[in-house]
Amino acid sequence: MTSEAAELLGVLWGRASTAPVSASQLRVLFVLEHHGGINLRTLAETLGSSPSSTSRLCDRLQAVGFVERRSAAGSRREVELYLSHRGRSFLTVLRGRRESALESVLAQLPAARRAALLHGLEAFCLAATDQLDEGDAASDARTA
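Structure tokens predicted for MarR family transcriptional regulator (144 residues):
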């Protein structure tokens, strides 16, 4: 049931999106939204991708005005990546479309079912966050 729900959510979100970016590029935007000012190597590690592939993703995102590259304050050789104002606006619009698509589905559910779904999603988010935090801590321990 979880897989089916995730797939249906993906379809709904895909329909709500008129995104000029791929799923991989969208992941870059989400990471930069929360971790602006990271370098290419760190972004590639976060995405589980190679630096060259990540650089090409960022090249395309910079070309459409969603990503900015800036020289790092501490080292002119290092480049930091940021989500541009246009990139932030794009994510705001995209989230609004996705929320509208979800709201139309949720409006079809009786109030008791919506409440149960909310309770289940809250528990899921807590468990997923805990698991991701544990994975980050294990990764930090390995690289220390």
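The mean pLDDT is 88.
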